[in-house]
Structures are given as structure tokens and as C-alpha cells.
Amino acid sequence: MGLNHLDFAIVALYLAGITLFGLRFRKRHRSLRDYFLAGREIPWWAIALSIVAAETSTLTIISVPGIAYDTNFTFLQWVMGYLVGRVVISFVLLPHYFRGDLYTAYELIERRFGRGLRSLTAGLFLLTRAAAEGVRVYAVSIVVSIALGTGEVASIAIITALTLIYTFEGGLAAVIWTDVVQTAIYVGGTLVGLATILHLVPGGWAAIHSAALAAGKLQVFDFRTSPWIPYTFWAGVVGGTFFVTASHGTDQLIVQRLLAARNQKQSVLALLSSGAAILFQFALFLIVGVMLWAFYRVPSSVFGKPDRIYPTFIVTQMPHGISGLLIAAILAAAMSNLSAALNSLSSSSIMDFYVRLRPQADERTRMRLSRLSTLFWALLLFGLAVLSLHKVGRVVEVGLQIASVAYGALLGVFLLGVLTRRANQAGGMVGMLFGFGIELYLWQWTKVPWTWWVTIGTVTTFGIGYLASIGMTARGSQDA
After folding, report:
1. Deepest in the core among 58, 110, 261, 475, taking most CB within 10 A?
2. Per-residue pLDDT tens for 238-252?
């Protein structure tokens, strides 16, 4: 069927509208506090929706249905760990973040250990976040090239440029409030898409449910204890808890939003409520995947990649107008995630490095460099996305794998700081080195599922970091 003028008009209207909406916030910031923390005046519900948008990218919307198409609902076990991890963050990490006037997660590390470890943790965040985000931006090209017929590089360039405009000008306030709008668009669009698929499948939900049940597509829980299966109850609850404690408790992408809350209570409320929304959202995307399986009944290899199934269905099967709305919804997720990445990368670059090296710089200079930093990261992510073309498989898992490689080392050293008193900076650095090294080894040279990497990396970092701290302290005492 393809898109027609109505669909193109809807997509164009969305792209222009969201960019102009974001630009409304360009005059509201006078300082780094305004630019990177939105003046700490954002209500909890807006932060909650922004957190959901920040962890929901194009690759989530197009790749999670592909997982359900190929397998079943067992991926949802991983999301259950997301809920437990949020509770851990609320009690273990958030109280420390609200003791003082922090701009980044890594300032907490300097306060506990010293400048060297802060630089190491912030640098690791910048490196791995940029790599993971490059894959996420690449996912945009899959949708846009199928829907609009533009080249993959041109598709990435269009979305990156439009997102940069309002992020560059409006800072975190623009990011959060556009996230609120974009979350409503992509969730609403997905619900419309779900209703449309129901109408197109002969027999509706009854036929889909019967076929999916017979094929084992509706299985949620897998209690097998094998460590080689990525999506089991144990990998989901344990691995998912460690993963989200790291991603939401040590990654500036999310911590920045939590710090923008008016107080700790509102930050906790935003974090916990976002967990309920994420569980609903992932269940929705998985249902879409099972419904697409019931509609096509062909192997995913027919489409080239599982990630192409949902965009192909939207373009070829959806009624005109609805298909345009769904393409706009997917682009909404892409832009919200990219804007979050740009602002968090910029905030860490400026606050964790530049301001420390040039504390005498005035606020005007800092603001100018903050915007230039946003531009730099946009260009870098564009380049990484182009390099990702044709080099990745199921993109949601690739993005999670790249993030997982660093999360164990980061979470381990944060826990060393808040749970122990004997750990020191040198021991923390040794622990991080071993934790990051073991995760690289798991990624490149083993078949251990990525769902366990953060858990293994965290335990390694914490254990070796603690022992190294004790050993170095004892040696120092003997030498004295």
C-alpha cells in the first residue's frame, strides 16, 4: 500500500510541531542549573513520563514486537526486575543524591572517594552511553527508510538535526516537556495500531489468542535454572534488578531527571510510577508482536530482520492516516531518547570535566560551552549511527548489551561508596578495572547471556574493590 500524502502530512506536521514546541523553552534558562536541571521545578508526573520516554527508543518499539514474533512473552520477566531495581534506588541511592546540590551522578563519587574516581566513572559513562546511543539512533533509519523511502544516512541526519535544534536551545526543560508529549503520541499510536491489527486478523482476538496459546506464544514465566537461557524468571528478576539499579541509579541519562525533581519525595514518586508505566508499555509492545505473528504466519527471516516486521506492517497494511500516525509515534520515541542522551552527555562533559578544570569560568562561558557540547555529541552520535548500518542484529538487544558492559563496573563502585566505609579511591579503581574487564570478556568471548552481565560485573567490582581497599590500607599502615 505505502504511505500517501495524508501520511506524509501527518509525519511532517509532527516533526515541525514537536520542534517548535521544544523551542518554546529556549528563553527559560539563565544558568547551568536551568539548562541541565530545569531549575529543579519539574513536577513528579512529568519526570515519570520523561523517564519512560528516555528508556524507550525506536529500537524498543520496533524490536520488542520482533522478539515476541520470534519467541513469546518471556522478555517480560526482564521488565519485572525493573520494578525491584527502582525500589532499591529509592532507598539506597536517592537519599545520597539529595544531600547537597548535585548536577551529575558522578559528583557523588567525588564526594565519597575523590576526583580521580569521579573522572573514571564519568568517562566510562560518556564512552558507553555514546556507543549505545549510536545504535539507538541507527534504529531510526530502519523506520524512516521503509516509510519515507529516504536513504538511511539521510534519515538519521533529519531526526538528529531536528532533535538537536530544541535540545540545543531549550536544555532539560525542553527535553522533559517534549518527552511528555512524545510519550502520549507513541503510546496512543501503538494502541491505535493494536486496534487496527485486531480488525485485520480474521476472527479478531479470539483467533489470535487461540493460535498464540497453541504455539506457546503467551508464555510469560520460565523457571528453568540454566544460566545459558537469556530470559528466565531468575535472569529477569535478578539480572533486571541489577541492570535497572545501574541504568537508573548511576547513568546520568536517568539520574539527571531524578535530580530535576522538586525534592526527594517527588523524585521517588516519579521513579516508582514510571516502573508501572514501563511494565504496561513493554506488555503492549509484546502483544503487538504476537498479533503480527498471527497475521503473517511466516518466519521473521522473510522480512530480512525481525526489527523490520512492525514498520513494514505499518506501511503496507495500515489504513492511510493511521500509518502516518504510527510512523510519527515511532519518530517521537526516537527524538525523545536522542534529546535525553544529548543533554545528559553534555551535562556530564561540562560538570564532570570542564567546570572542575576551569572553576573560574563565568556562567556565560559555561552556558556557551554547554550548547557547543550538545552540538558535538549530536555530530558524534550521528557518526556512530552511520557506522552501525548493516553491522547489528536485533537492535534492542545490541543496545542493551553495550550498556550492560559498563553498568556492572559503575554500579559496583557506587555501592562501594554508599554501603561501605572502608573502601577507598584506589581500591574502587582496581575494582572498576576488574569489573569492566570481566564484562568485556563476557561480551566478546563467552556465551553467557547479556541478562547476567551487570550482576556479574557488579559483584566483581564490589568484591575486588573492597578487598583491594582493605589490602592497600593494611599495607599503608605497615609501611608507616
Report:
1. 58
2. 999 999 999 999 999
